[in-house]
Every structure is written in structure tokens, then in C-alpha cells.
Specification:
This protein is of the alpha/beta class. Helix content is 33%, strand content 16%. The protein has one domain (9-173): HAD superfamily/HAD-like (Rossmann fold, 3-Layer(aba) Sandwich). The protein has helices at residues 9-16, 22-35, 46-51, 66-75, 98-107, 121-129, and strands at 59-61, 83-85, 115-118, 133-137, 151-153, 159-163, 169-173. The strands form 3 sheets. It has a 3-stranded parallel sheet with strand order 3-4-5, with helices on one face. It has a two-stranded parallel ribbon with strand order 1-2. A two-stranded antiparallel ribbon has the order 6-7. Helix 1 (9-16) crosses helix 2 (22-35) and helix 2 runs parallel beside helix 4 (66-75). The protein is globular and about 55 Å long.
Length: 174
């Protein structure tokens, strides 16, 4: 299951069980996961980081479906962003750049103006292929699995976002 994190469920099924109807199986799995809260918790520092960024300047790009993503965000007490790109919105999942390119477009920014925070190698590859900078966060994977990122951190609290009041954000990684 090491290949599953950060990759659309349908693509995992196609890879490990090509004899199954991948779309039907993915719908069943995602429906179950959307209702399963066991082991789901908010990452330390996530709420504080999101509060430090204006609403129109961040989004979520996930390999999960929209129902799964919104259920988990709500369960963890995090806001559902205005820009939410899910497995339902793309033809090609991570590591293809389509998910992050769609996120940048929906936010109204050029890819080179975007900074991605990722916890999976497939997501890091996706963002880099899209021309974005990436901070890897060692959580699901160890830091040595995230070495393709521009930098790797161990906790979200290491990221500090500030604004000059005129819309320009400054991001500092400590």
C-alpha cells in the first residue's frame, strides 16, 4: 500500500487489481472512507497556518474525491477552501502535473507563483512538474522519501506567513 498515498484510488486499483472495475471499486472505497473517522486527525499547526493566509490565496489539491476531502476537512474543523481540486476534477492524477496546474489556474496564479506543501512523493513530483516550488512535510513519509522537494520540514509550525498589507505574502521556513 506504499503506492496508495497521494495517488487517486482509481489509479491504485488499476495498478494492483487490473481485473476489477476500478471506477466502481474506487467509488465504494471512497464512500466508506468519507464516513470512517478512525485515525483521522488534524495535522498540528494546520489551522494556524490556514488562518495566516488570506482565503483567496490558498486551496487544497487532493487525490481524494470531493466527498472524502470535504468530510475530512469538516471532521477536523478546518475550512473547506474556495479552491478544492479533487480526483473528480482531473483526468490525470498525481504525479501528473494536472491537479496542481488546475489549482493554480483556479486561484488565478501562474504556477511559478505558487508554493505547494506536500506529504507524498507523487504530490511533490506533480507540483514540480507543474513548475511550482514545494515544501515537503515529513508525516506520512519520512524526510528521506521527500528529497525531491525544495525543502523538507517536520512540522507545519515551521512555516510562517506574513502580509505586507498590499497583498504580497512572505513565507519563511524555520
Amino acid at each position: 500500500m506504499a503506492i496508495a498515498h497521494g495517488v487517486r484510488t482509481v489509479e491504485v486499483i488499476r495498478r494492483v487489481a487490473p481485473h476489477l472495475d476500478a471506477e466502481a471499486e474506487a467509488r465504494k472505497i471512497e464512500k466508506h472512507e468519507a464516513h470512517d473517522k478512525e485515525g483521522v486527525s488534524v495535522m498540528a499547526g494546520a489551522a494556524e497556518l490556514l488562518r495566516s493566509i488570506p482565503d483567496n490565496r490558498w486551496g487544497v489539491v487532493t487525490s481524494g474525491t470531493r466527498p472524502l476531502a470535504t468530510a475530512r476537512l469538516r471532521f477536523c474543523g478546518l475550512p473547506v477552501p474556495k479552491v478544492l481540486v479533487t480526483a473528480d476534477d482531473v483526468a490525470h492524477g498525481k504525479p501528473h502535473p494536472e491537479p496542481y496546474l488546475k489549482g493554480a489556474e483556479r486561484l488565478g496564479f501562474e504556477p511559478a507563483e505558487c508554493l505547494v506543501i506536500e506529504d507524498a512523493p507523487a504530490g511533490i513530483q506533480s507540483a514540480l512538474a507543474g513548475g511550482m516550488k514545494v515544501i515537503g512535510i515529513a508525516s506520512t513519509y519520512a524526510a528521506d522519501a521527500l528529497v525531491q522537494a525544495d525543502t523538507v520540514i517536520s512540522k507545519l509550525g515551521q512555516i510562517q506567513v506574513s502580509s505586507n498589507g498590499a497583498g504580497k505574502l512572505t513565507i519563511e521556513v524555520r
